[in-house]
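Thread: "does anyone have the structure for this chain?"

Original post by V.I.:
We have the sequence but no experimental structure in hand. Need at least a predicted one for the grant figures.
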Amino acid sequence: MNASRRNFFQRSAALVSSLAVPSLFSFKKPLPEIRPLVISTWNFGKAANVEAWKILSTNGRALDAVERGVQVPEGDPTETSVGLGGLPDRDGRVTLDACIMDDAANIGAVACLEHIVHPISVARKVMEKTPHVMLVGEGALQFALQQGFKKEKLLTPASEKAWREWLKDAKYKPVANIENHDTIGMLALDGNQNLSGACTTSGMAYKMRGRVGDSPIIGAGLFVDNEVGAATSTGVGEEVIRICGSHLVVELMRQGSLPQEACERAVARIVKNQPAKSKDMQVGFLAIDKAGRHGAFALQKGFTYAVYSNEIANQLFDAKSFY
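Reply from O.Q.:
Generated one for you, tokens below.
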């Protein structure tokens, strides 16, 4: 093993070890409660937060806020990683994944859904209108149409052009913070101190037909525990699924970690599992707790998130990173 590789493993092991137990910071006196609050992933989270805040600022429910908020990038044809205009799979088909979770642990999800601009709203219908948790593929589309959703073409000319350019080499090598910038996750705490979350994506660009990442999976791409807090994720979904990432973050908060530390420890778990691969991919976690404190952490630099509350007027932040 050469010196640089040995140093990398030693540095990774040191951080993982340092995050293996809660820090003293976890036991500081809790901060005053801040609510309402909405927090979401990436730059497009700012526009999404504006719509969510319209509901939260008028004493609306967190569940309604997160659904309304993530509909913004879902319906924006210029956003190539969510909803309408999303980059397709390697066969040229745009397939969407989404899930939603409320303060009472009600959940709904859809995966490999085609032709519907707002999969988050179909996921909510699954939660409210069916005895099931998740519907996929043709069954999810059939259900959506029965619920009154309109069938639309999701592949825009720009996304089709990018796909045809990709076909020239057809190499699947996602670039951190570009093709991995594939999800909006949104978490909200309303005026009644109830939490909800939503996560929606068009998935990794040029994925295999039928591939499903973490975004529609409760406990991976999203988890809400109204006693403790909520978390969501973005990036390479396979690695988030491997550690049940969002559930892990929330359980770490239950054990005493603040949101920032919980996100850091989850990322460290990924590094521990995949020390070599983790240098070339992006995964980020975002979390809030019942007091309205928030945190974010990623493998690589470049992960941004937006926060909107009475104290923070929809600001964009750069998450700290492992590398």
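V.I.: this helps a lot. The first strand starts at residue 37 and ends at 41.
O.Q.: and DSSP finds nine helices and 13 strands in the chain.
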